[in-house]
Amino acid sequence: MSYLSFSFLCLFLPITFCLQFVLPSKGKHLLMIVSSLMFYAWGEPLYVFGLIALCALTYGLGKWITYEQDERSRKQLLWLGCIACVFLLFYFKFDDVLFKWIWHLSNGQADMEQWIMPLGCSFVLFSAISYLSDIYRRRVSDCGWLMTFTYLTFFPKLLMGPIMPYHRFVKENQTVKLTMTLMEHGARLFVIGMAQKLLLADHFAVVATQIRLDNSVLGVWLASIAFTLQLYFDFAGYSMMANGIANMFGYRLMENFHHPYHALSIRDFWHRWHISLSQWFRDYVYIPLGGSRLGRMKYVRNLLIVWLLTGLWHGTSWNFLLWGFYYAVILLIESLFLKHFLRLLPKFMCWCYTFFLVNLGWVLFANTDFSDLLYQLSHMFFLASAPLFSSDSLYYLQTYGSFFLLVLLIGVPYGKLFITQIYRRFRYHELIDVILFSLLLILCFSYLIANGYQTFLYTQF
Amino acid sequence: MKTIRFLPILILFLILSLIHAICSKETHNAWENRDLSSYPSFSISSFLSGSYSEKMEQALNDHMPKRDGFQHLHALSQYVLGVREVNGVLIGNQQLYQKSEVVDEIKWKALAENLNAFAKKNHGIRFDFLLVPSKSGVIVPDHLKAMLKQETYNQSWFLNQLSDDFYIFDAKKALLESQRNDLYYRGDHHWTTHGAYVVYDAWRRQRKLNSQLSYETLTVNDAFYGTLSNRSGFFLKDRLEIYQSDEQLTYLIRYVEEQEQSSSLYVKEKQYSANPYEVFLGGNHARVDIDIANDYNRTLLLIKDSYANCFVPFLLPHYQKIIMIDPRLSYDRLQSIILEEDITEIMFLYNTYTFFHDISLYDMMDSEMN
Fold it and tell me: Which of A230, A450, B75, B370 has the fewest Cβ atoms within 10 Å of its own Cβ atom?
């Protein structure tokens, strides 16, 4: 079930929302588990049994680790759980590749059934590893099966995260406080996220796909910037909706994006983009490997491992590996050579440097076909003797220019300053807020009814 | 001041939408001219296969309250933001356009070859080819030129593939020369009766055919919202008119598949229906035979799409019999009809958009020649 499906918006969300007031507060986690399983079963009716089994096994293993006295056995149990999760993840991610290999090796004789990767597989398995690690490290005590199942199946974060660490989830949500302020905040976040997806991301998607392989410099640049913005508004919009829904049920999730395109270095960018994934790799891979404390060579090794794994997490295609390697190299150069130089540069120059490299990174990320990648890069950097602009690129600039302008206006710091400093002083700002949110909700519905929506980009990961 | 909350509005809005969707008894949407999905019945097997959730989603979408209003709001907001393409419909200056795609040149080249072979095989019969451009080939606003260039390219490319056995009539030239601004409906993909008459008149002059008839126009629907209006939600009102001649012709129309007969080209019941363009011959049919009471010893086989429906009334004075075949609905063999009906002329009358976006003529000619 997608957040933007009518089954979710008009059936699942209002019914579950009302049920939480009918049921006693003690049954809150149970309501979340049951509704989360129904939410998952709606889109993946068969895999829901797999999800239940995974939760039960993870909980059982966690319990074993908790009560096991021998430190070595505890470590072995943790490794067992982690390897099982990684194996499952690799199995589903590499299923396609494995299938092809076996088929070739058997000269087309092998009769294998190919499994489709279950929705949210990467996010659930990473959450399971986080759960086992936190139990092993005694960062959190055993909170019972209800909390474990809620953490692993919690529907607002089930399909696309955020991959919140277990200890943090427990800290924030052990006692669910349903306050009007939190629910109101959640409702607003939900609508803003929906608007980001439907009104911005889906429009940028049109530009990004239609002129990705345009025969002009302007066309490919426009398409690459459109993809950069699409990806952000798509995923950040989703994360905002996830946080909003969680708040409407009295839960709190972590922030997944913090104005990433305001970043002034690549390191800064990764502190703001898909924060939950970056923190997961930092906490459960980079730091256990020794981080930057074991000398320069090991630091380089650790960084390479983390970034190649980050690339692999996104997919098995070569471009994701290249994309991971690209960031590993840039981060190394930044931390070893550029760090001091960037501090001396004016902020605007730092921003240009960061945005340029991030945009280039997304070009690698978007192109699974090597010839398409070469085509786009050669046109972007004047290597293909292409014209500066084409009639198509001018049309898309003219037609969708308002969206780029809108993003620029929202993006500059003065926009936020206006809202916080001037608008909030206005006497009827609360009433205007409610009217604006209502209009935004109606507008989003009109887009859903008339045009549907494009699948969230991160669903495939 | 008491705090005003958005949350109750959100929940109320969602609940009311749900109540409306579930209680809705509508089965047909007149604007979109389609049947609405009904709610699926639950079974374990349909749920496990995923078909139940899919059908439920479609049914909920179809029964959302004020669908038309939401669609209009969507189109309006797109327009305000500068977007000129909604659901594949391009928005011009008070005109809506269909966007043509790049043609599969291998397939259409094969079609041209089959048509050439068909014309050669039936040597002695006159072959006319009327490929009528869509609005996008005739009235192109500057800001949409980049998006609408494909149709003109497709048309000239294809016509160059046809052999000299065809009399290719330049409908575009006739339409451009007429200087009229009502050749196409603003919100529909069809040409108007005026457009059809302009092309007919130019074609008749080129063929040196005499016509003693004069026509007067009669409005049959002055609030016609066409398919492009409905698809985009950008509602442009049109007037549907027909040409009536002062001299009454006698003819009999037979709808072969339906086994029905009529003595009028116009079906008045369709005048205020969801698709008033069906007033011409009641819409599209697999085969329509028209016997006309006159002395011309000419039988025309007209292979056509819906553009021909408002064109055919003008052809009546020139033929004794007209057989209309719509390849999208017909499984007839053309060669059999030619032999059985003693065909003297064959005309292909197509709109460029339909011609390049529908493969039924390709299939028909392929089975005819292979």
Answer: B370
pLDDT at B272: 85
Verify that A163 and A220 share a domain, yes or no.
Answer: no
Degrees to nearest 5, angle at CA A109 with A107 and A115:
110
A314 catalytic? Reply is: yes
**Which of A29, A203, A314, A379 is labelled catalytic?**
A314
The pLDDT > 90 percentage for chain A reads 70
In this complex, the residue of B13, B48, B82 whose CB is nearest that of residue A399 is B82
Does the distance separating the beta carbons of B71 and A446 come in below 8 Å? yes
Q: Do B81 and A392 touch (CB under 8 A)?
A: no
pLDDT band at A454 (very low <50, low <70, confident <90, very high): confident
Q: With an 8 Å Cβ cutoff, is B140 touching chain A? A: no
Whether residues A104 and A236 share a domain: the answer is no
Average pLDDT, chain A: 90
**φ, ψ at B321 (rounded to 5°):** -145, 140
* pLDDT tens digit sequence for A144-186: 899 999 999 999 999 998 999 999 999 998 887 889 999 999 9
Say which amino acid occupies B112: A
Residue A348 shares a structural domain with residue A408: yes
Strands B166-169 and B126-132: parallel
Inter-chain contact A7–B1, Cβ cutoff 8 Å?
no
Question: Tens of pLDDT along B206-221?
Answer: 999 887 788 899 999 9
Same structural domain for residues A195 and A171? no
What is the pLDDT, as a whole number, of residue B2? 63
pLDDT of residue A339: 86
- Does the beta carbon of B5 lie under 8 angstroms from any beta carbon of chain A? yes
CB contact under 8 A, B6 and A437: yes
Is A1 part of a structural domain of the chain?
Answer: no
A203 and A123 part of one domain: no
Count of structural domains within chain A: 2
Look up the ipTM and state it: 0.86
Kindly provide the b/e burial profile for residues A420-433, where b requires at least 16 CB atoms within 10 angstroms of the residue's own CB: eeeeeeeeeebeeb
Q: A314 and A224, same structural domain? A: yes
Q: Domain boundary residue among A133, A158, A176?
A: A176
- Of A117, A148, A176, the position where a domain reaches its end is A176
Q: Which residues of A touch B67 (CB under 8 A)?
A: 449
* Mean pLDDT to the nearest integer, B51-80: 90
Residues A83 and A125 in one domain: yes
Please tell me the distance from the alpha carbon of residue A370 to that of residue A377, in angstroms, as a whole number. Answer: 11
Identity of the residue numbered A372: D
Report the alpha-carbon distance of residue B299 to residue A400 in Å, rounded.
53
Reference A372, options A317, A295, A444; nearest CA is A317
Determine contact, residues B355/B361, Cβ cutoff 8 Å. yes
* Angstrom distance (rounded) from CA A392 to CA A395: 5
How many CA atoms are closer than 13 Å to the CA of A120, on its beta-carbon side? Answer: 28
For residue A275, is it within any domain? Answer: yes
How close is the nearest chain A Cα to the Cα of B42, in Å? 13
In chain A, which residues have their Cβ closer than 8 Å to the Cβ of B61? 6, 448-449
Q: Residue A76 contacts by C-beta under 8 Å, 6 or more apart in sequence?
A: none
Residues A406 and A438 in one domain: yes
Residue A81's Cβ-count burial label (10 Å; 0-12, 13-18, 19+) is buried
- Write the pLDDT tens digit of every residue in A312-336: 999 888 999 999 999 999 999 999 8
Q: Is residue A392 part of a domain?
A: yes
**How many CA atoms does the CB half-sphere of A332 hold within 13 Å?**
18
Q: Give the nearest partner residue to A446 out of B17, B74, B143, using CB atoms.
A: B74
B57 and A CB contact within 8 Å: yes
Among B10, B49, B84, select the one facing A191 at the smallest CB separation: B10
Domain holding A407, by residue range, is: 182-460
- How large is the average pLDDT for residues A220-238? 96
